[in-house]
Automatic annotation (TrEMBL):
Pfam families: PDZ, PDZ_6. InterPro entries: APP-Binding, PDZ, PDZ_6, PDZ_sf. This is PDZ domain-containing protein. Coiled coil: none annotated. GO terms for cellular component: cytoplasm; plasma membrane. Keywords: Repeat. Residues 47-114, 132-207 form the PDZ domain.
Amino acid sequence: MSISWEVQDLFVSSAGSTGAVHAGGAIVEQGCSIRFARFPAANGIRELLIRKSDGGRAGLTVRRTEDGKILVCAVARRSPAYLAGLRYGDEVLCVEDTPVQGEQLPRVRELVQQNVRNSIKLRTRDKPRERYLTIARDVEKGYGFRFVDGEITFVRPNTSAEQRGLERRLQIIEVNEEVVVGMKDEDVEAIICATGDTVTLCVVPVKVYRQMFAR
């Protein structure tokens, strides 16, 4: 399902905006603050020490791809894993210094269960070619972009979106730290419009998205 061009005009021009938008029959007030805590990593590799919650959980779920990669497919908001810097789509390379590339999920689960400390150590690789862009809303030109099924289809010239490097054929993965993969466009639009005057997007090339995440 694709969002209408009329609704997406909010991202191209905000003239006449009253400070609230209608999305899916609900009014979404603007002004939510941006909370962004993902820091760059050297060569995309991260060494994470994840503190477990009182119940011994870290707040993440993984899956195994056909080529043997262990990918993070869910991270609970504000969970220990999330606060440590783990995000949707990251690849798990090692669990407690034991490589897991090519391993079956039961083996990965076994390594986690064997860990009886209050923390667990992971080595991860960021999503391939991921980029985080913070885009300011122009009073007349809006955010300056449109998207269909999460894919950027238009970027208006001479806007913050263009200046920050947003371009066509990029897939939106996160909006202000919230994973939007699989969401309807109108729901993504509501999240963007509720942020106020700036929005932070995590994007990857559409080709990368389809190869690694779509299934």
